[in-house]
Design brief:
By secondary structure, the protein is mainly α. It has two domains: about 45 residues, no CATH class; about 40 residues. Helices cover about 70% and strands about 10% of the residues. The chain has a two-stranded antiparallel sheet. Strand 1 and strand 2 form a beta hairpin. The longest helix is centred in the last third of the chain and has 24 residues. One of its GO terms (molecular function) is DNA binding. Keywords: DNA-binding, Transcription, Transcription regulation. InterPro entries: HTH_MarR-typ (IPR000835), WH-like_DNA-bd_sf (IPR036388), WH_DNA-bd_sf (IPR036390).
Length: about 100
């Protein structure tokens, strides 16, 4: 869970809550490592893999059509602005 929380920049507690919800809906399966009980392994269930096969192309299509209205230059500028805002929000959180 620690690696996932670092990758997504969320607290381990938040990740655990998300994982509990995904497990209840049968999208993932969690299991403790047999040798090191501090480690929890997470894998997609059959339902989770099926969902991703369907959802990924649809999400990609929707995302692409959303940004088609912007020129390439505008898309680059939007990414720059979002990165700047993200960095600012992270610095605000670090100060707290």
């Amino acid at each position: 869970m620690g690696q996932i929380s670092q990758m997504l920049d969320l607290t381990p507690r938040a990740i655990t809550g998300i994982m509990v919800g995904l497990e209840k809906q049968d999208y993932i399966a969690r299991r403790k490592d047999q040798k090191d009980h501090r480690i929890t392994w997470v894998q997609l269930s059959t339902r989770g893999r099926t969902f991703l096969k369907v959802a990924k192309p649809e999400a990609s299509k929707a995302f692409t059509s959303l940004f088609d209205v912007l020129t390439k230059k505008e898309q680059i500028e939007l990414v720059r602005i979002i990165e700047k805002l993200t960095d600012h929000m992270k610095s605000q959180i670090d100060e707290e």
